[in-house]
Design goal:
This protein has 125 residues and is mainly alpha-helical. It has a single domain, classed as Multidrug-efflux Transporter Regulator, Chain: A, Domain 2 (Orthogonal Bundle). The chain has helices spanning 5-12, 16-24, 43-57, 62-73, 79-124; strands spanning 2-3, 32-33, 39-42. A hairpin with a 5-residue loop joins strand 2 (32-33) and strand 3 (39-42). Helix 4 packs antiparallel against helix 5. The mean pLDDT is 96. It comes from Lentzea aerocolonigenes.
Length: 125
């Protein structure tokens, strides 16, 4: 199955401009073209876009994503470096999750505190 750029954008959750940008910077391979010269994305293309989107969502810098994409084209001999990139990024993601968890605990504490303040105000009214 193949998808137009609009369909690929819709399925990936990325804008058409973002798809073109990712192609221009080498993060995404140029898709095949149909007989009219329009981009035609494959299921494999969409799978790669889903992976790249997750990397971006988790805060991986574009330069690291580009390095990963370039290594991917060089085949299995680069598996070690690709794994290293992902392990490093996973460590960063875990650290961010821990930091966010601490922030969430502070928010929960403050919300509970203000709930008590509200109850006390209602009791004295």
């Amino acid at each position: 199955m193949s998808y137009s750029i609009a369909q690929a954008a819709q399925r990936s959750g990325l804008s058409i401009d973002t798809l073109r940008y990712y192609e221009r910077i080498g993060l995404v391979d140029p898709p095949a073209r149909d007989s009219g010269g329009r981009r035609s994305y494959s299921e494999e293309d969409l799978g790669w876009l889903a992976f790249v989107t997750r990397l971006r969502t988790t805060g991986m810098p574009i330069r690291m994503m580009r390095e990963f994409a370039q290594l991917r084209h060089r085949g299995d001999l680069t598996a070690g470096r690709r794994k290293e990139i992902l392990v490093e990024h996973r460590n960063d993601v875990r650290a961010r999750i821990a930091e966010l968890q601490t922030c969430l605990e502070v928010l929960d504490y403050k919300i509970d505190h203000y709930a008590v303040v509200e109850r006390d105000l209602e009791a004295t009214a």
